[in-house]
Every structure is written in C-alpha cells, then in structure tokens.
Design goal:
Arc Repressor Mutant, subunit A, 486 residues, binds 4'-deoxy-4'-aminopyridoxal-5'-phosphate, Aspartate Aminotransferase, domain 1, alpha/beta, 3 domains, four-stranded antiparallel β-sheet
C-alpha cells in the first residue's frame, strides 16, 4: 500500500497513516470488505515501527472504519447500513479541470424506480438472449484457433484494417446480401459503435449538422451530442425516414452527414422503402452529403423480401456502411465492420489506429474460423427461428392484454417493438410504476433529439425472454397501464 508519509511533518506518523485510511475509506477508494495489510506487513512496507501502525489501526477500529476477523485479517468496514457505498465519492476540492468536465455532462433523462427493483423483474431493455449464445461451439473454435495459430493469434496482428481473412469473409457475407465489395474496402472495428465514432471523428467537427431519423438509436444520439454536433431529426413513418421532407432541410442546414438505419430500425422496427432509399441516395449525391448506413441487424429477417441496401445502390462512394456481429452472434465479441470506398477509407483506417491500434487479433481469427466452417450460418438460422417465435409471442400478448389506445406495428425482423401510448401519457410516468410491478422497458425519450417528443413511446425488446416470460411481462405492463389510467 503506497501511503505517502512525511517524516518531517509535525503530524505524527501513526496519524498520517490513520488519516490516509480515513480519507480513502470515506471517498470509496477502499470499498467495504477489502482486506488491508497486517500491521507487521504494513510496518515493513512503510519502514515504520509496528506500534505506529497498531496505533493507527486501533483508532480506525474504534471509529468503526475497519474490523478484524479472527484468523482472516483486517478489513474495511461498511460505512452505510445496507452496504450502499456512494458510487461517486466527491472530494471537496476537485481540480479545476475536473469541475469543467462535470459542466460538460448533460443530465440524462433518468427514471428512478418507485420501489426497490424486484428479483423477478422482466426487463425488455436488452438485445439478444445470452442463453442462446453458442457457448460450446465458440469454446471449440477458440481452442481450434489457439492450437492452429499459436502465439501469432496473441500478437497485435500488425497495423492494418484488420485480419485479412476476416475482411475477405465479411466481403463474401456482404456479397450474399447483394453488396459488392473488395476485402480492401472493409475495415474491422470494435463493434459498429466504433464504426460510427470513427466516421464522425473523420468527417465532422463540433457545430456540424447531422441528419437522423426521428426516433433513432440512442447511443448514436449520445455520440453526436458528445461530439457537439447539431442534430436535426426527420420523422419516420411505416416506410422509414420521410425522405420527401429532406430537401428543404438540406438546403437550410447544409448537413455534413445523414445517419440512417434502413432495416428493422432501432427503435422503430420498420424498414426504409425502396423508393425512399433511391431518393435518399439521389438527394445525398445532389447535395454532396455522405450517408452513414447502419445495418445492425438486417440478417434477422422473419418474413418478407430483403430490400437492396443503400450501399448496394451506391456507385460512387456516397455511402459508408457499417455492420456488426453483436446482434446476430453476441455483443461481447466487440467485432463490427465498416465498408467505405475512396480516399476516406485510408483516413478511417488511420483514425482506427490512433484510437485503439487494432481490434482483438484473437477474436478476429476466432470469428473468421467460426464463420468459415459454417457455424455462423447455422447459428443465424437458429436465432432467426427463436426470435421469430418470441416476436409472435409478444405480439399475441400485446393484443391480448393491452388496451386499443396503445398501438404498434409488427416488425418483420430485428429485435424491437415500438409502442405508441395515448398522447397524454408519458413513458417517464409509466416506467417507475412498471418497475414496481416487475417489468421494465426502454423509455421513448431516449430516442429523440428532443427527449420530450418521445414521451408517448416505449421500446420493447422481444428477443431476450421466453414466450412465457414475455406473456407475464406484458401482462404486468397492462396492469400498470390500467392503474395509471385510474
Ligand atoms: N447501431 C445500432 C442501431 C445499434 O442498436 C447498436 C447497438 N445496440 C449499435 C449500432 C452498436 O452495436 P455494436 O457496437 O455492439 O456493434
């Protein structure tokens, strides 16, 4: 333990030790139940006598800050009855630059549950179902790669756009979806969130205008806010972004990027129609605005025909396309990809280097192996069947339990259902009560540039729970809705 001691100080050494512990215990630097060194070890470490440390420990113990367990050692005591150490301990004298940083943080629209969170809470917030992750197959694949590639798999893997065989494999997956690409145009990223971030950092500067669908993916909004971009939302309907409204906005605001999620949109679940895809590309080309196409889940299709990606219509590098294995496989992989043509590609590669040097070499190799031996496609078929049943279960439960004043459209794939509440009802009022009743959803306020607009909406994920759990969760939601109406 590095306790700074000043032998010249008028404060005795035992007091300096005691004060150091006091401060660290109070600020949470030493959390409850952490073992601290024995008096002998600490005395040796600090080069002081054992009695000095014993005096310090005796004072701390009599103030209830530490306790001794016979035969086990000395530990930090809990300052708070239910062991609720404050998560952000605030020293009285933050350095000035820290204070400036707090000013930057925009208060999120947070919802506090009205009661302690129930053990049997059914949360419709997540993404896929971890119980369906291919744990066994993946374990085998990791072992295969380590056996065949050895320590090469554990190196950085060089500064480039990613593990070449995986880039080639992704290019083939994209070809099967009608998107023509060369492996040299594929950049491997740490999830598609990094792709989003790289594109913004390369193309945009604070104050630039970005166009988004309204509603749109919340962490894209958070990213744009963090980069101090000006966000303009174009409303969506059942056919996705109302591209017909775009031209005057392009003329007025001169945006530097258009961000779109054309397939099974997050949070709306709808797809951008083919004519709108064409119009969007046409307008973007005409007004010289890049399109960032976020295709996060298009392979999870339950029915209907896949429409051509905007990228597949793009002839001259207008579109940057990002994809991910997070939803189709598992998010903990942290592997996504970006497809871009033209001079921007090299800029993006360099931005990636300076950000994190490389995406995990081991995981890229494992993923490539997993896909090339056919396991990925088999898993995708299984997940699609599973999630389709769950979508059906949620739709049936919503129709059974919810009043007709709550409306929704049935998505043909993806992960989410978007609910419209009566106009005068707020998801922020509903959520604490819902949690009290044992069900959680994602409030609509998170998905709009202006959170107010999302009050009459909520997003449900249908993929995480079994049909029985879904039915129970929706029943609880309906009970909450009827209570709030009373
Ligand atoms: N885009 C959309 C639309 C998403 O919903 C998500 C994650 N929920 C991401 C991008 C980022 O995913 P990841 O970084 O895990 O690939």
């Amino acid at each position: 333990m590095r306790i700074p001691l000043d032998p010249q100080s008028r404060t005795p050494l035992y007091r300096q030790i005691e004060d150091w512990f006091r401060e660290n215990i109070h600020t949470g630097g030493l959390p409850p139940d952490v073992k601290i060194p024995s008096t002998r070890d600490l005395a040796d470490e600090l080069g002081v006598s054992r009695i000095t440390v014993k005096n310090a420990y005796a004072n701390l113990e009599s103030d209830g800050l530490i306790y001794t367990r016979e035969g086990s050692g000395t530990f930090v005591a809990s300052l708070f009855p239910e062991d609720k150490t404050p998560s952000t301990a605030v020293p009285a004298n933050w350095p000035f630059w820290q204070l400036e940083a707090t000013e930057e943080i925009q208060e999120p629209v947070e919802v506090t549950p009205a009661a302690p969170i129930r053990d049997d809470l059914i949360s419709f917030i997540g993404v896929g179902d971890p119980r369906a992750f291919p744990l066994k197959d993946f374990t085998h694949t990791i072992r295969d790669v380590l056996e065949s590639d050895g320590t090469t798999a554990l190196e950085y893997g060089g500064l480039h756009a990613g593990y070449y065989p995986l880039r080639k494999t992704i290019s083939q997956i994209l070809a099967s979806q009608g998107i023509q690409s060369r492996p040299e145009e594929v950049l491997i990223t740490a999830g598609s969130q990094q792709g989003l971030s790289l594109v913004c950092q390369t193309l945009l500067k604070p104050g630039d205008v970005v166009i988004v669908e309204k509603p749109t993916y919340n962490f894209a909004l958070e990213l744009f806010r963090a980069l101090r971009l000006k966000i303009i939302g174009i409303p969506v309907d059942r056919q996705g972004m109302q591209v017909e409204q775009l031209e005057p906005v392009l003329q007025q605001y001169h945006p530097r990027m258009i961000y779109s999620i054309p397939v099974f949109q997050n949070p709306g679940g709808m797809c951008l129609s083919a004519p709108r895809r064409r119009l969007l590309l046409e307008l973007a080309s005409c007004y010289n605005v890049p399109i960032l196409e976020d295709d996060f889940v298009s392979d999870l299709r339950f029915e209907g025909r896949a429409l051509p990606a905007i990228k597949s219509l793009d002839k001259n590098g207008q579109v940057i396309y990002i994809g991910t294995f997070s939803k189709m496989l598992m998010p903990g992989l942290r592997i996504g990809y970006l497809l871009a043509r033209g001079p921007i590609f090299e800029r993006l590669v360099r931005q990636k280097w300076v950000q994190d040097l490389a995406t995990s070499n081991l995981m890229q190799r494992v993923l490539d192996r997993y896909v090339t031996v056919g396991r990925y496609q088999a898993h995708l078929r299984r997940s699609t069947r599973l999630y389709r049943k769950r979508r059906d279960a949620m739709v049936a439960a919503l129709r059974r339990y919810l009043p007709p004043s709550v409306s929704f459209d049935v998505p043909h794939g993806g992960l989410f259902l978007w609910l419209r509440l009566p106009e005068d009802m707020s998801c922020l009022d509903l959520l604490p009560l819902a949690m009290q009743n044992g069900v959680e959803f994602s409030p609509g306020t998170r998905y709009f540039p202006d959170p107010e607009e999302g009050k009459p909406n909520l997003r449900l994920n249908f993929a995480t729970h079994t049909p029985q759990e879904i039915e129970e969760g929706i029943r609880r939601l309906a009970v909450t809705l009827s209570k709030i109406r009373e």
